[in-house]
Amino acid sequence: MQQVSIAVDIFIQQILNGLSIASVITLIAIGVTLIFGLTGIINFAHGEFLMIGGIVTWLAVSAGLGFALAVVLAILAVGLMGYVLERGLFRFTLERPTNGFIVSLGLIVVLQHVVVLFWNPNQKSIPRPLTTVWEVGGVRIASVRVMVILITIAVVALSFRMITASRYGRALRASVEDRDTAALMGIPVRRYITGVFVLGSALAGLGGALLIALFPITPFTGGTMVMKGFAVALIGGLGNIYGAVAAGLILGIVEGFSAGYGFSQWTDAYSFVLMILVLIVRPHGLFGGTSGPRMAS
Amino acid sequence: MSLLAVSDVITGYGPTIVNRGVSLTLEKGEIVTILGPNGAGKSTLLKAIAGLIKPRAGNIAFDGADVTGLAADVMARRGVVLVPEGRKIFVDMTVEENLRLGAYARRDEAAVEADFETMLSFFPILAAKRRDRGGSLSGGQQQMLAIARGLMTRPRVLLLDEPSLGLSPLLVKEIKAIILGIGERFGASVLLVEQNAGLALAVASRGYLMQNGRIVVSGPIAELRDMSLMRELYLGGVAG
Ligand SMILES: Nc1ncnc2c1ncn2[C@@H]1O[C@H](COP(=O)(O)OP(=O)(O)O)[C@@H](O)[C@H]1O
Ligand SMILES: [Mg+2]
């Protein structure tokens, strides 16, 4: 009996751990999938956007600001960065999304090295914003992980509401489905593209702030995170944000489960194994994706 | 002054030239047709007028203002709206959402609601399928939806690209009645591109014949009907 109940405790903790990391990955995956859906651009620098969100949080907290304010700053800073990069770079690649992809590869190097140049390549961490650990029937629950999960749920729910219920969300979905025909309805598709870059970047900024609340980061943290973000976006179906969220949840449970049963050294591989399996069986992802923007001209 | 005036417009894609200097006009309240064989450049011309592609040269004037090269969303806001070839309805959205997208740029909410109700009564099939996915409609129903969605923008010029494509003769008759009603009920002038000469000749008052990217003949519809070239191209030819 004792044996079994310990196993369950560990299991619940590991699921929570898995879900908190999956939250961060889901935030990346939503941005990746939205930007791809509307522009066909696969933005591989999205992980660096996340990393910069973490760095901004670290700078703000180190300067004595509270964590909540630091999160807001990270969201604003990375959102602004997304705006500048879309207006300054990606808008010129809209006719050829492959060029956007190549631009994003270049951005990875640039962003990493800018951060290294100013703030060295070492690990950076902040004190945990919440230190309470609840003990519920022998299960130890770190409040900081619960915070990360709850913030993600709130942000995802808000994004969903915007996308399904508002006039802007309807226009966004129309633009994802068919850019030219959306324009024929009077929808300023270019502005929506900018908006999606800003929103996706802001979510990555939030993800970075939440990540550094859980773990130390380095200027090179973006790489693995973006790979997992892509895995999640692909599992859910590229361009499908419902799919991205559902796949993020699946990944969190799978990673937590496997770590709880002694395969933690493989954790980073699960998302890719899962992705490969899903793509073999369902090439458009579990929930069906878009094939990028359709253009009539 | 014409409501819409296209002058010497040249269009193309990459290295290919499609329209080689096209001029035409559309007056307020008119239904005018552009006829011509597949590949003549009719759809490309409509795309240039609607702002989906930029003309390489030439001029487009709408309501006295130069609108050459304006983007499609700006043209739609000004009142020039294309119902594209192949309908292009949003298949993942409901019929209602498709219609409401047509009103995206409008701020006159009471009038939008009134128009929405008008569409449901003008196109009863859309009322019945209001909550269905656009993709679940039949070809004819999708065409009705595409026209209704276009009308929801409150256009002053409606550009219709082959609305009869792939429809049964019965549905073509229905589309014909709808096109004839557009002017009276919605106050829009219509530029209709068709390969179905029967439909075009029945609804339009004037017509242009396009071949290899050029207008080769133009005139009142009765003259076009009698023209030997027309006969050769359509009545005894491709369209049967
Ligand atoms: N997106 C495109 N890219 C390149 N060529 C095109 C494109 N669309 C049409 N064309 C070419 O332009 C010519 C005119 O096409 P189109 O305007 O669709 O003719 P129509 O509507 O009269 O049948 C055709 O030769 C067609 O192959
Ligand atoms: Mg055509």
Automatic annotation (TrEMBL), chain B:
Alphabetical keyword list: Amino-acid transport, ATP-binding, Nucleotide-binding, Transport
Domain ABC transporter: 4-237
GO molecular function per UniProt: ATP binding; ATP hydrolysis activity; branched-chain amino acid transmembrane transporter activity
Keyword ATP-binding: yes
GO biological process terms, semicolon-separated: L-amino acid transport
SMART domains, per the entry: AAA
Highest taxon, organism lineage: Bacteria
UniProt cross-references to PROSITE patterns, sorted A to Z: ABC_TRANSPORTER_1, ABC_TRANSPORTER_2
Keyword Electron transport found: no
PANTHER family: HIGH-AFFINITY BRANCHED-CHAIN AMINO ACID TRANSPORT ATP-BINDING PROTEIN LIVF
Family: Belongs to the ABC transporter superfamily.
Protein name: ABC transporter ATP-binding protein
Taxon lineage: Bacteria, Pseudomonadati, Pseudomonadota, Alphaproteobacteria, Hyphomicrobiales
